[in-house]
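The data are set out underneath:

___
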Amino acid sequence: MKKFFLSVLCLGLIITSCKKNDDGQVIEEEIENPEEETPVTVDIEVQNFFWQTLNLWYFWQSDVPDLADDRFDTQTAYEEYLTENDDPVALLENKLLFSEDRFTFYSDDYTELVNNSAGVSKSNGLQFGLGRISDSDEVFGFVEYIVKNSDASTKDIKRGDLFVAVDGQTLYSNRENPEDNNLDLLFSDNDTYTLNMAEIVDGGISASAKKVTLTKSEGLEEDPIHVNTVITSGDKKIGYLMYNQFVSGNEDELNAVFADFVSQGVNDLVLDLRYNLGGRGSTAAVLASLIKGTNTSDLLFKTIYNAKIQAQLESSFTDNFFVSTTGTNDDNSNAPLNTLNLNRVYIIATEGSASASELVMVGLAPYMNVVHIGGTTVGKNQGSLLFVDDPENGNVYSPENVDNINPNVQWGLQPIISRVENSAGFSDYIDGLVPDIELSEDVTNLGVLGNADEPLFARAIQEINGVSGKSNFDVLIPANVVSSSKLHDPRNAVLLLNNSVPSTKIPLAEKK
């Protein structure tokens, strides 16, 4: 097995000629390439960073021929391969990623990925879904919620509002060829756009005269705790928490919410993850422990890596247990958890729920009754980590090591590096988790989040109370999501692993 670490920065094309002098000694002389007056140089640092990282860490490393440890016989062959693939993105997408990989992503600025995982982005604060108008190619938008302290929070727009056009252009997505669409009107780099609003007329969606102009701002930080409340229904004290992203450094705030639940005598919990596409696995462990209990000998989930990594890891790096404190990550206070110690939880999850959200559901299932209300989830049983060009740290990103990142390569790569399974060994949910009680959101009646009459919450309350003659929840226009403000960006559907791999224990491929 041969491994190489590329130490050169670029390659020049030079023709070398050999001849003998009068003493019979062989000498070399460089001759300009007659077809190229100026030597061609190819910068291969980014390609090297991609290959090195994926060769060691990628979950499907053994399934990608170009990532094989014996792919190159010599250092020269490796360098020539990188040079031939002079477009790093094309190399990554066409030759280095496994065909079934849906969730690896990258950026030419790693700080974008750091901010994204912390819930910080350039945004106007509008979170929306996009559905199709009956059987046509036309698409409508519906407001899911508004981020607090955003530009949208200052405008005349709220959950449940509808729109059908952007800057006067009607939204569409070709049913036969979904790539033929103009949905980028909502996702472009334009800082400002105007929504042409709509309303329900005779059971259909029609444009109205109302317009709303929104402007994005840098550094908008979303509070992942969107709504928390306690309601009394019959003899039940029901806690409700809508949690929209698993953000590290937020655990103390989560603990405070559960302290309030405990103080108010909550005996049933509705956890709303319908728009939560994931985040930190360590935060998921805290949330699961706040619900179920703090027995730190109970396994929540296990991470499975590729054979090369797995062989070098002890169980302390693969087994993730329930926890008893908020921890110390990102300035958390390590406070004892205010757990509810429940044996049943009601979780609202939909096609907008993924990764760490699914992990909480799957991780809790062996220990308690998890009642899933809503729709089939995304199906992401995989974990990822952020990598940068920092060979001394195994290319694993660490905020303490930013000065060691190659100044010539500021790319960030977040590949799938693991599969997760619960304590019963279950991990087969690549097609999503199917609800116990199926109920779609109705765009004609989205309701107010946290209110007892919001349809999905109301359905959970019925189940909690065991109502014999349950009310019907007729859905007039289901939110059949074509896309959404979150689903459009694959960086949102993540299970981020932190403190789970020994970044300095396993070196990158060494130079021959």
About this structure: DSSP finds ten helices and 27 strands in the chain.
